Amino acid sequence: MIWNEYIEAADRERLKRLQNERLTQLIERIYFKVPFYRKKLTELGIEPGDIKSIDQLSQLPLTVKDDLRDNYPFGMFAETQQQIVRLHASSGTTGKPTVVGYTHNDLNTWSEVVARSLTMAGVSRSDIIQIAYGYGLFTGGLGLHYGAEKVGASVIPISGGNTRKQLQLMTDFGSTVIACTPSYAAHLGESIAKDNIDRTQIKLRAGIFGAEPWTNEMRLQVEKSLNIKAFDIYGLSEIIGPGVAMECEHQQGMHIFEDHFIPEIIDPVTLEVLPYGEIGELVFTTITKEAMPLLRYRTRDLTRLHVEKCACGRTLVRMDKCLGRSDDMLIIRGVNVFPSQIEAVLLEMSEASPHYQLVVDRVNNLDTLEIQVEIDDQFWSDEIRVLENLRRQIQNNIASALGLTATIRLVEPNTIARSEGKAQRVIDKRKLVI
Amino acid sequence: MIIKQLSVFLQNKTGRLTELTRTLSESGINMTAFSIADTADYGIVRFIVPQPEEALRILKEKGFSVNTTDVVCLIVPNEPGGLYRALQVLSDNEVPIEYMYAFASESGASVVIRSESNAQVIDVLQANKIQLMRASEIYNL
């Protein structure tokens, strides 16, 4: 089933004409409504009317996450507060969250792309969908929610966590579809086995998993433990949230909804645009977004694009599962974490940042974060009480900055390995290399 | 009256304590008093040696996380109620104690006390005729 055949299976020439038209309008909108972009375009000598085709994309400036931070909170918005009907936020690189806004039309766009995504996974009005992504500032829960309602499925907005309740409603209500992070899906699968739940009571047949990297092994494991077909959904809040791209039943990459988001692949070092099929950093231009349109936004996700028509009949470009990041961002339990955020927290508590190391692991399919902090002279005490207070304080400050509970381990000075004088900040023990 | 104690932060890792004592042994440094405060992840080793400055230098050179801490050492009669009388005096005067540990010496039982206010500990104990060890005595043990 295809939700919007006119777009999803469009002749690519016709799709391009639509993109050209929308890009032209976008340049006009941001030139007049967003001082940040007006300045950037002016510097390049570009004015509304100059850009007529997506072939000219490479002439346009790139946007990075730091630009959003520098214009915190609403500096990137192209609409006044009166037009904004929703705000979401995710953790930023230096403690300040990344804020995104939506107009009514943006929410409609979002529901549309999520409806298309769910339809790819075979979700229809005959389904009961359990949405176990977090609801709230995170875009996962509410993003899936409105799309599922648009499709006409019965929505259980249970949000994340509380495994016992998840399993109870799953069996009592007969959920047929589950949407959550892949690691939580794996955790649910293990809980079903551990609690000896009668599998005949479980009606699940599909899972919509995203918001963190996962491997094909994990897919097979989850498909087996939950007895479902697992689908990969891609999105980031800066672009719209979940529903930027989605896998169809043929699972040959995720179809990008190009009538709203134009993808490009660039070399993260030279910033040159790369042809289809080559691995590089994924960049998006949001051609229909009203509240916060972004020009050539660097996602930092490394992947490649395929333009050949899919066996499902869709002509939309497909992206591979993300192969990695072009920066040092980690995704831990669905939360974006930059080592610099941890450093900022430690720096707030001391005069000089101590040596630290992040050890990320996956225990029983749930991500764990341990932060090792060297006890140097500024933190030194020979009293357990003082050291334990320090440990708790670091833990609390990390939790309030990142919304993530970390284990803090105080270690002796010079025990964290340094290579060429620079400490290795992150040890990621999760086996996620695809 | 103020005694310099050495405190070493050690991770709970097999061999770390052996390493510390080996370093002291190889440098010919004798420990007069010794205690460990431990948590799940790490411990603080506290000890008194006759040459604290030298031991501090050597341990720092060897990369230990070490510092000196001022403590007071009182001599407690080796009989029932010996420690009680000293502590009663301190609590009557509301002197807080961070930690303490005991060791055996020629004068009988001795107790190391660490307080945020060592001066207050000394004043209160001396006013109540409780015997304190002098730095020269403990370093000659």
* Overall CATH architecture of the largest domain in chain B: 2-Layer Sandwich
- If you compute it from the alpha carbons, what radius of gyration of chain B comes out, rounded to the nearest whole angstrom? 16 Å
From the alpha carbons, calculate the radius of gyration of chain A and give it in angstroms: 23 Å
CATH C-level class of the largest domain in chain A is Alpha Beta
**Helix- and strand-based class of chain B?**
alpha+beta
> Residue ranges of chain A: pLDDT <50 for 5 or more in a row?
none
Largest interface: A-B, 17 and 18 residues
Q: What is the fold named in CATH at topology level of the largest domain in chain B?
A: VC0802-like
Helicity level of chain B: 25-40%
CATH-defined topology of the largest domain in chain A: Rossmann fold
Which CATH architecture of the largest domain in chain A is right? 3-Layer(aba) Sandwich
Which sequence of strands runs across the widest sheet of chain B? Answer: 2-3-1-4-6-5
